[in-house]
Amino acid sequence: MTFQALDIHKSFGDTEVLKGVSLSMKEGEFVALLGPSGSGKTTLLNIIAGLAHADRGQLLFAGEDITRLPAGQRHFGFVFQNYALFRHMTVAQNIAFGLRVLPRKSRPSRSAIAARTRELLEMIEMADLADRFPAQLSGGQRQRVAMARALAIEPRLLLMDEPFSALDAQVRQSLRESVRDLQRKAGVGAIMVTHDRAEAWALADRVAVMNEGHIVQFDRPEVLSSNPSSDFVRLLVRADAA
Amino acid sequence: MTRFILIALSLLFLGLMVILPVIAIFHRAFADGFDAYRAAILDPETLAAIRLTVIATLLVLPLNVIFGVAAAWAIARFRFVGRRVLLILIEIPFAVSPIVAGLCFLLIYGAYGPVGALLEPYGVQLMFNLTGIVLVSAFVTCPFVMREVLPVLMVTGEDEELAAVTLGANGWQIFRHVVLPNISWGLAYGVVLTMARAMGEFGAVSVVAGAIRGQTMTLPLQIELMYNDYNATGAFAAATVLTALALVTLVLRGVLNRFGPKKEAHA
């Protein structure tokens, strides 16, 4: 299933945040949107998710125009920067939420939901913490619950907004592996917003470098390193090699 | 020393202004003996007043819960024209004297008012009955629920609701499973405040109730009526009922404070 964004424009007041962004993903691909704050990457992700709407441009998923489709009907999993776990629900209830709110005719049975939840809990290695509340979890655990909750609905695309920014460096490193692993297992394409070059390099098949409302280069990490298209990309790539 | 003075002052003030009057109510109510008290409470007019007060309060509550939660959610989550105005308007019942509020309602919804006159040909009368009492009570208490719920919504933020949106929940499901559990304590607190105020409201209700004995007398009106009739035992006996209702809401409030910001286990 391929995803395409075509010529997306977005302004807030007088500020044009996205100036005609196009992006095309292959099936199961992991794409990172990399850029400094204010480059428009989070806005682009929100538009893809349906949490914001483009002023101009088109979103296509598997050939279908989803530009005006409400967020809830896109079946895109979203991992929020602060995870946005439901604080009054247990870990298991958080994960099951997307299944429980399905319309009656397409909703799995109670036992099927429980089984799927257990499966996801095991996948994130938190089966013993099913009855904990988010406040009782560490940052890394919350992040994994957020991942499992997003994957529970068997999303067509996984969207992540700075999924590691709230974690300390050590946890971040180990979670990268697990996120990539979960995404592969789910066999779902993913778009991750990040401002951390190392993170993008470690996770993504391809990286879209964003600056001032444009995607300035979109390619595999090694190509970005060996063949930067502009000074901006060259500096960005080199920045943390030093 | 400072500590001692502060505590002593607070206790003295509280004793003189709050505790003593409450004791006085009960003391006077039982002054003529328990039988007289019993007879006063079981007086048909007093019973009717108790019933009316409870019914009116129970009708006001859902009105204010629905309006208060809807307004708080709208103000917390959406930017719309008139948002600021709504925030200010909602405070008006706090600022306006209840008796003035009652007069305004009479002016608008009374038989000669624009709305009242419109409905009169159809035999619908809004004032001088239960409807009028409910309307003004709803006005007087309308900020409570909203004022308690709004800050909670502001603090919890929008993220959980957005997460629910991306997971496919519809508006009602988001409200039921995400918003409501998060605001439940604030909402309960608002309900308690609304209850206390709706039961005790005198000024606004006195204007629109029409003072028909045994029919449109709420408890506070009945108390004043009996007191003016030199029926002190009756007045104070009825006052104990109102006080008891108020104490119940106080206890509820205490319970809410005690167990307040805790997690709920169920979704």
Describe what you observe in this structure.
- The complex is a heterodimer of chains A (242) and B (267).
- Chain A has 242 residues and is an alpha/beta fold.
- Chain A has a domain at 3-87 and 156-239: Rossmann fold.
- Chain A has 9 helices and 10 strands.
- The termini of chain A are far apart.
- With 267 residues, chain B is mainly alpha-helical.
- Helix content of chain B is 78%, strand content 0%.
- Chain B folds into 2 domains: 1-30; 32-259, MetI-like (MetI-like fold).
A few lines on this structure:
The complex is a heterodimer of chains A (about 240) and B (about 270). Chain A is α/β, with parallel strands linked by helices and about 240 residues long.
Question: What order do the helices and strands come in, and which of them pair?
Answer:
The complex is a heterodimer of chains A (242) and B (267).
Chain A: E1 3-12, E2 15-25, E3 30-34, H1 41-49, E4 56-61, E5 64-65, H2 71-74, E6 76-79, H3 91-100, H4 110-123, H5 139-152, E7 157-161, H6 169-186, E8 189-194, H7 197-203, E9 206-211, E10 214-219, H8 221-226, H9 231-239
Parallel strand pairs in A: 3-8, 3-9, 6-7, 7-8
Antiparallel strand pairs in A: 1-2, 1-4, 4-5, 9-10
Helix pairs in contact in A: 3-4, 3-5, 4-5, 5-6
Chain B: H1 2-29, H2 34-41, H3 44-77, H4 83-89, H5 92-95, H6 98-109, H7 114-119, H8 130-156, H9 159-166, H10 171-200, H11 203-209, H12 219-228, H13 232-259
Helix pairs in contact in B: 1-13, 2-13, 3-8, 3-10, 3-12, 6-8, 6-11, 8-10, 8-11, 9-10, 10-13, 12-13
